[in-house]
Amino acid sequence: MDVYDRLLVELNAEFPGFRVIEKADNRFQKLIHNLLKVVTLGKMSNYIDGYFTTLGQRIYVPPSWHTRSAEDRYIVMCHERVHMRQFRKFTWPGMAILYLLVPLPMGLSYFRARFEQEAYAETIRASVEIYDLDHVKTKCFRDHILRQFSGASYGWMWPFKKSMNLWYEAQIQLHSPQ
Fold first, then answer.
1. Phi/psi of residue 10, each to 5°?
2. Which residues pair with 60 in a beta bridge?
3. Is the pLDDT of residue 178 over 80?
4. What is the side-by-side order of every strand in the sheet holding 58-61?
5. Are strands 53-55 and 58-61 parallel, antiparallel or unpaired?
6. CA-CA-CA-CA torsion for 144, 47, 36, 141, nearest 10 degrees?
7. CA-to-CA distance for 85 and 94, rounded, in angstroms?
8. What number of helices (H) and strands (E) belong to the chain?
9. Interval 79-119: pLDDT, tens
């Protein structure tokens, strides 16, 4: 059993309603995709093909999901497990209000940034586990994660690059050998 299959066993035990659903086959996900294109003035146009979305215990995946390696699927699911736990802790209404609206829907989305920092910290941890610390130190990996916070993908949720760089450095230190 590979690392991803072991994680699936854990997820099914922790979340009895856990399901993986393809985004492209879901009308609600297509609606979200179209709304995101409108509110970001076309900047977020790869929601269906490039992003994973967790709603409660359901994880919506892009069409490329089944072609990814078990290691990459493991890393993604580690990230999404954080969101499932957030839904459990804050409830559906709480997550909807905090993630989408507080304090602003776009440009300065404090709670969305905090929720995503927690999940991306897990992405970093799982990437160190699967690859190594040098992998998460690469400019490409780092820039990809930091771009999620300051770009259109999440509605420019936290445009403060200095604080995000400090957060990323703290994650590196957390996973560095003592």
1. -60, -45
2. 21, 53
3. no
4. 19-22, 58-61, 53-55
5. antiparallel
6. 0
7. 13
8. 8, 3
9. 999 999 999 999 999 999 999 999 989 889 999 999 999 99
pLDDT, residue 177, reads: 78
Query: For 157, which DSSP code?
Result: -
DSSP 60: E
User: 122 near 175, Cβ under 8 Å?
Assistant: no
Q: Which of 129, 117, 128, 130 is nearest to 172 (CA)?
A: 128
Whole-structure pTM value = 0.96
Q: Please check whether residue 142 is in contact with residue 134, taking contact to mean a CB–CB distance below 8 angstroms.
A: no
Amino acid 82 reads V
Task: Please check whether residue 99 is in contact with residue 111, taking contact to mean a CB–CB distance below 8 angstroms.
Answer: yes
- Residue type at 144 in one-letter notation: H
Q: Tell me the C-alpha distance between 20 and 82, whole Å.
A: 15
Tell me the backbone φ, ψ of residue 11, rounded to 5 degrees: -65, -40
The number of folded domains in the chain is: 1
For 157, the domain range is 3-175
Q: Which residues does residue 19 pair with via DSSP β-bridges, in sequence order?
A: 58
The CA distance from 139 to 162, in Å, is 16
